[in-house]
Amino acid sequence: ILGGYEAKPHLRPYMASLQLDGQHVCGGFLIAEQWVLSAAHCTEEMDGRVFQVLLGAHSLREPEPHKRLYRVRAQIPHPGSNIHNNKDDLLLLQLEEKAELNAHVRVLPWQREDRDVAADTVCEVAGWGTISHSGRRPDKLYQVERPVISRDVCNHRTRHDGTITEKMMCTDSRKKDTCKGDSGGPLVCSGVAEGVVTAGSRVCGNYKKPAIYTRIAPYAAWIDGVMAS
Ligand SMILES: O=C(O)c1[nH]c2ccc(F)cc2c1NC(=O)[C@H]1C[C@@H]1c1ccccc1
After folding, report:
1. Whose CA is closest to 154, among 166, 143, 144?
2. How many angstroms is it from 77 CA to the middle of ligand 1?
3. H runs (alpha helix) in the chain
4. Over the stretch 171-197, which tens digit does the pLDDT of each residue have?
5. CA 205 remoteness from chain centre
6. Atom number in ligand 1 closest to CA 45
7. Is the ipTM of this complex over 0.85?
8. Is any atom of ligand 1 closer than 6 Å to the C-beta of 139?
9. What is the DSSP letter of 160?
10. Is 17 in a helix, a strand, or coil?
11. How many other β-carbons are positioned within 10 Å of the β-carbon of residue 228?
């Protein structure tokens, strides 16, 4: 998170850290007791390994009473996701067991109505991603508030030049922005997850390249189908 600030501990009890060999790779969030939603691109350099999911954390490294690392039973990238673009950049992870829910581990409601969030709506995003242009990695969860920008503005030829589909949304990236390591985390507007930070490589903090999110509502049937399977 660039230009943000340390989150108040455990006020975002749905936040997940997707880890490989104890290292944070991407964000994610609890959408059901045994299911975490994240971004498909995050699985690109795993060569057969499987994530572990850290729940209930504020600090990645310090011991905390409600922190718990869960094994993953299944990792299901959206069938339309691919390495060439940001399309269908969603990943569902089934935990080995139901997460133990408490004040520090909670499910986040997600938007099922497929209607664009109005431009200028201020939403919030949190993560353990880089907090400086030099790539500094935080130990604690950071957050930032960002206004939604319209798809037309985001698709301007000087911005993302027509690549933002109706299943994506954008927020202003002037100074305050998401960055590497925040991908997979939720864009939360009025307490509801509306989008997932896309994990394609992207410059951060440059107003000419707004942040891109996969909208969740268009994928409700896929998410329900996978969780029911
Ligand atoms: O965050 C992303 O956008 C992104 N997209 C990917 C694609 C493949 C892939 F193998 C990984 C990623 C990845 N995450 C990262 O590189 C994470 C490792 C880096 C990081 C940054 C800050 C703090 C901790 C760790």
Report:
1. 166
2. 16
3. 151-154, 220-228
4. 999 999 999 999 999 999 999 999 999
5. 17
6. 10
7. yes
8. no
9. T
10. strand
11. 6
